[in-house]
Recover the amino acids of this structure.
């Protein structure tokens, strides 16, 4: 039997491996049956190389006949095009939560905020190849511009001085945000990388920062996933996270702050923890 996984956007490649690994759960297959998997994606040589190396049986082709279907990227605007038959073999991964999308039994969400039909897409490349660094590396990932991060939080950290060495690494699309120019000599910028190179930048990471707040990025607390959560889970990273976000995701290895004024003390705690563990 054949499964077609489709993602015809130029983004969201990072969730596809989780769909490959967790398709039994998404398709609600009670019996473990092995499906022949076909991928229909936009041109991305780096992603294709990674998948071919790890899953050589997967075929990259847009086919017309298949038994099961998973679309990796849908939004509320696609609602009228979706199959809503509860016995359907067509499933959809939504990147936002809306009331009407929740009425469709074939729609899966990426966050427990949905309270129904959700999966974690936390199967990420090279997660078993972590490197040991003698200096803690803190990462911020994703789109570096377009207001996706509350950068005052990072400035609050970097405005202070510390007795311990550390590295701040920005990984993502775009350029160094103007809000961080004053700290450009402190920040390592890894931008506009290929799929493979992007994910290899996480191998030496110690801690990740979502850099959002309920006041500045409300959608991530009510109807959307911040992808930092999956990177924290997938790469087993410590996370400096605000209390409201932690109540949603209940991550294991965290330092929790309540507002911008106490994020620095959380950062110091993670520094001390790193060097205590490194020296023992």
């Amino acid at each position: 039997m054949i499964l077609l996984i489709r993602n015809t956007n130029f983004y969201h490649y990072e969730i596809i491996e989780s769909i490959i690994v967790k398709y039994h759960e998404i398709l609600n297959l009670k019996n473990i049956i092995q499906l022949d998997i076909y991928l229909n994606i936009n041109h991305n040589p780096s992603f294709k190389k990674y998948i071919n190396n790890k899953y050589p049986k997967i075929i990259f082709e847009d086919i017309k006949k298949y038994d099961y279907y998973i679309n990796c990227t849908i939004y509320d605007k696609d609602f009228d095009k979706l199959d809503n038959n509860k016995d359907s073999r067509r499933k959809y991964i939504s990147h936002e939560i809306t009331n009407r999308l929740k009425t469709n039994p074939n729609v899966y969400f990426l966050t427990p905020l949905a309270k129904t039909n959700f999966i974690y897409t936390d199967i990420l490349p090279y997660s078993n190849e972590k490197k040991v660094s003698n200096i803690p590396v803190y990462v911020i990932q994703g789109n570096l511009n377009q207001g996706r991060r509350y950068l005052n939080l990072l400035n609050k950290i970097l405005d202070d001085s510390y007795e311990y060495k550390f590295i701040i690494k920005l990984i993502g699309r775009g350029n160094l945000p103007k809000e961080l120019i004053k700290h450009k000599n402190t920040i390592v910028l890894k931008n506009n990388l290929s799929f493979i190179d992007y994910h290899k930048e996480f191998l030496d990471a110690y801690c990740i920062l979502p850099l959002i707040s309920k006041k500045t990025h409300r959608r991530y607390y009510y109807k959307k996933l911040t992808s930092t959560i999956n990177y924290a889970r997938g790469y087993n990273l410590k996370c400096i996270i605000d209390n409201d976000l932690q109540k949603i995701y209940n991550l294991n290895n965290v330092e929790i702050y309540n507002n911008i004024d106490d994020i620095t003390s959380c950062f110091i705690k993670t520094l001390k923890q790193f060097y205590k563990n490194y020296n023992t």
Notes: The mean pLDDT is 95.
